[in-house]
Amino acid sequence: MSLSFRKASIADWETIIFLEKSSSSRLFFAYTKKDETKKYLAKSQVYIIENSGKPIWDYFFRNKGQGPCLF
Tell me: the pLDDT tens digits for 23-34? Predict the structure, then answer.
């Protein structure tokens, strides 16, 4: 297993939608539309976690001011 992390760009919107849908549940809001996903990528620091080059998860953080970041 070889895990790597890379910063997602707006061009990764399809990968993000795929990863979001795979982890969606009643308690988790997944980004599933192109426009909303591109906005999400533009306003947040989004990273893609890969296992041997295959995307397996995404995570983000956004600093909403002087306080702690949201993860």
Answer: 767 777 888 899
